[in-house]
Amino acid sequence: MASGDISPSMNLRRRAISASVWNLGALVTSQAMRLGGNLIMARLLMPEMFGVMVIATTVAVVLALLSDMGLRQNIIQSPRGNDPVFLNTAWTVQILRGFVLFALSLLVASFAWYAQVINLSPAGSTYAAPELPLVLAVTGFTAVMTGFQSTKLALAFRSFQQRKVVIAEFSSQLVGLLVMLVIGYFTRSIWSLVAAGLAATMVSTTLSHVWFHGPANRLQWDSSALKELIAFGRWVLLSSAVGVLAAHGDRIWFGGSMSAAELGVYSIAVLLLGAIEIAVRRLAAAVALPALSELARGGDAVRLRALYYRFRLFIDLALLFACGLLLTLSPLIISWLYDARYADAGNKLAILSLSLFTLRFTLAHQAWLALGLTKYLAVDNIIRFVSLWTLLPLLLALGGTTYAVWGVALYALPTVFFVVFINRRLGLFDMRRELVVLPMLPLGALFGALLMRFLEYI
């Protein structure tokens, strides 16, 4: 068959496979660098420094997602995604948003400083750490740099240019890692972590302009493009606002109920579990969303459903096995990687691994985005928000942070019922396929238990 005779389905499959391979390679490399850097820094810095950085990072992420209009997702999904006028308008909105976020970061930093001055911050908590206000202010500047990121990066995702995306991300992460290690070695201070984030963001933004193909951005304000951005983004904005308060609500609550050192230990468990979550969300956003969006734009519901479950099979098998494995193996993993100061992270990681059961339904969110049904994503995140912010204060009052960690692991369970309800309406639900993968969870737990037993004898 000549190359010109390749069917659209085969062409899409090849591009999706190529994108998957590049993203998997990038994920393995990225997480190896991330873990290696964390292991080194855990020996150079005190646990409380990680606790302070958790709060600073959480504030930056919360502010960013409270104002997220889904500009990248809109460019990937929209029929106007290649229109320079549409792209320039999105870029202008993105820049304005970056400056607003930085101003809000300075406001939060000022409040944190004043709360410490008048002794409003709980004594011994992470919020009382003297470094926190300045770290919040400096970390917030990353929003300005991110705001100038070129829309060429979003176009690269839309057109499956994964090789360039991977190289750019690897380069920015490598620079950030080197900056962190050098400054950390010579100063043993939290500013090595702050400088790493700023350096990585600067490199990423620069490469988005010079490394990728596409129309150069300029400031432009088109009313029709802005109208489409708002129509798509209003539900994404609501979804992101409540979603980030659900996803990062644990750190907000624990910042006032844990010391900086305790929160630093908790952050280790979150980091390791987050590596899996980042991998799944990366594959879903970088591979599944562009592929499903292309089928949705063509109105091919049959192929969209088949492709959705093809992605789901891979994600379900991997996450259910990982969930079972971490339930039994987490304490041993922590003892291998970290010193005795971080031992409690093993128990927390085992509990938090239960969240992988619901994480596998994140692919439904990409299908809804591809179909332009952003309101369902908003409702899903509202359920998460209400569940977490009801459970955590209740469990903290009943049994402290030990109980509350269980709430963090299980708060998303109610969303499973919502996903099933919506997917049935969209023709994206198959009970047999949902049930056939479940044995992977006990299989993972059994494998972990046997591995633990084997390692005890050697």
UniProtKB/TrEMBL annotation:
Protein topology in the membrane: Multi-pass membrane protein
Domain of life assignment: Bacteria
Keywords: Cell membrane, Membrane, Transmembrane, Transmembrane helix
The keyword Metal-binding is annotated on this UniProt entry: no
Transmembrane intervals: 50-71, 91-114, 134-155, 167-187, 193-212, 232-254, 313-338, 350-370, 382-398, 404-423, 435-455
Main location per the UniProt record: membrane
Membrane found in the keyword field: yes
Compartments (UniProt record): Cell membrane
Record-stated family: Belongs to the polysaccharide synthase family.
Official protein name in the record: Oligosaccharide flippase family protein
Organism: Pseudomonas spirodelae
The organism's taxonomic lineage, starting at the top: Bacteria, Pseudomonadati, Pseudomonadota, Gammaproteobacteria, Pseudomonadales
